[in-house]
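Suppose a colleague, Dr. K., hands you the sequence of a protein chain of 346 amino acids and asks what its three-dimensional shape might be. Before reaching for any lab equipment, you can write down a predicted structure in token form. Begin with the sequence itself:
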Amino acid sequence: MDTKLKKGLKIAAFFAIGLLLFWLAYRGQDIGTLINALGDTRWGWIVAIAVFYLTAHYSRAARWRLLLEPSGYKPRSINLFMSVLVMYLSNMAIPRSGEVLRCGLIAKYEKIPFAKSLGTVVTERIADLAIVLVVSVVVIASQWGLVSDMIAANPGILERIQLIKSYIVPIILILAALTAAGIWMIKTAIRRNIFGIGDKINGIWHQFRDGLTTILHLKHRTLFILHSLYINFVYFYAVYLGFKAFGFTEHLTLATGLMVFVLATFGVIVPSPGGMGTWHFIVIETLAMYGVKRDPDGRAFALVIHGLQDISFIILGSLSLLLMPVINKDYNPPAIQDEETNIPSD
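The predicted structure, expressed as tokens, is then:
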């Protein structure tokens, strides 16, 4: 098959998957009432939010560059930025697959070992999780009355929490056993080095570990922290800006936006009703606690704000897949002195 045709089919497949997922997320909505609610949307604010999101994506790429530099790599910002956009597109189809895919793209175009870049991505996620956990504890503790009311109004939430509690110990034990078994198998493979597999595993592990610990050798730690704070600030503040786009939410405050952001982030514990995404459910229910009608106002808000991300991921991610081979056609990344064995991205 012709190479260009093959790449075109891959991009078309990603685009089709994105559109399908977007349709599945919203197919259960009452289109008539939603259209009426969307009629008064102030689209200028929506455009501002879209631009705001783009700055966060670029900040994520810049932060990633900071983590790769201690290993001697200086990838182009455009490649990091586009690989981040492809990551979001891939995550729409398979959760967390984008982290693997973006490392594969950087391995392909920047010749950075896959395992090493994957280690830096894990470090990123740990930083983001730490920030969200700290903010969540503060926000939920300060507005516990609201959270209690929300749980009382939705018994399914409490049932889900109880279900998780009943399974948490067995899950931890199983994960611990699997981890121990995996470590034993890896150590055995390294020790016996059958067909050189041990050397390969050892090399991959060292690359991953080096990537994971690059945060300890950062030249610009303050800048890394600022990027991490800014990325999470954008996702919170975008919710608040979204309030300005609708007459029925324009009265809501920054504190409300922070609460919506925190609860939606941890919305995975809530069952998804009526085919809607869990994020939408939590946002709608939280807004209802502040007097916003669930239908059609809350639904319209969730549709526009989350739909904006979905559409941008589909368009920008697909364009990035299309453009990366073009902009890297004659590009040769700077050589690294003691370059380690690279892992093919294909």
